[in-house]
Amino acid sequence: MLRELKSGNSLLIYIDGNTGADDKSILHENLIKINFLKEAIYARKGVAYFSHLAQIPIVVVANYKVSPDEIKFEFFDPIYPAKDMTRSEYIRMATQRIYDELSQLVLQYPGQWESWLNLHSIIKPNEFTSLYSIEQSLVDENQLRFNLKLFGLFNINKEFFLFNKRNYSAVPVNLELYNQLEKSIVSPVEKNVFSKNISDQLIANKVLL
């Protein structure tokens, strides 16, 4: 790669695939922790490393559909190796800027970004490291609220599911329970709307707080 760059050729690299940046490799020296979509991810830093080593700019290019019949290529301003930065400082700055520019388009066209299915392997959400808690002084013991930090709800073809955000598992639930849980997202609900057996299970698993 370096030989090609020094020969005056360009390299086309897909930055957002992050192949190899999974749970087993987060301590690898080829990765760097950056901010992306209000969270921290581990991204490969090889692009910025070669840019600094060869003293050539990085040009971020993104393509997306602005309509069903129109595909647009967007070229962002080049990122030049800064003389007043060390290599490690430049790598951090450049990698962060690449993902900052990507995030603008992901937010605007979320359905067009294919890496959603791989994001779990490089993201380390802060709230997943410990169980979500609420100050007990603020909670009525006869009321329960849905733990939206750790769980979600979705339905497909009239089938209803409780989704665990920590391990990406889904548990089927009936429509009555689904509606009750959905109400508890908007505001706390009375504990007695659930049977004791169900409420005990939901509380024990931190679905309801």
Any low-confidence stretches, pLDDT <50, length ≥5?
130-138
Number of helices: 5
Helix fraction by DSSP (H/I, runs of at least 4): 25-40%
Order of helices and strands: HEEHEEHEEEEHEH
Radius of gyration from the CA trace? 23 Å
How many DSSP-defined strands? Answer: 9
Summarize the structure.
The strands form 4 sheets. This protein has a 3-stranded antiparallel sheet. Strands 1-2 form a two-stranded antiparallel ribbon.
Could you outline the blueprint of secondary structure elements for this entry?
Elements: H1 2-6, E1 31-36, E2 39-44, H2 46-54, E3 61-67, E4 70-75, H3 87-108, E5 143-144, E6 151-156, E7 159-164, E8 169-173, H4 175-186, E9 189-190, H5 196-204
Helix pairs in contact: 2-3
Describe the protein.
The strands form 4 sheets. A 3-stranded antiparallel beta sheet has the order 6-7-8. It is 27% helix and 22% strand. A hairpin with a 4-residue loop joins strand 7 (159-164) and strand 8. It has 2 domains: 2-124, no CATH class; 131-204, no CATH class. The longest helix has 22 residues, at 87-108. Residues 130-138 have low confidence and may be disordered. Helix 2 (46-54) packs across helix 3. The chain has helices at residues 2-6, 46-54, 87-108, 175-186, 196-204; strands at residues 31-36, 39-44, 61-67, 70-75, 143-144, 151-156, 159-164, 169-173, 189-190. It has 209 residues and is of the alpha+beta class. The protein is built from 5 helices and 9 strands; from the N terminus they run H-E-E-H-E-E-H-E-E-E-E-H-E-H.
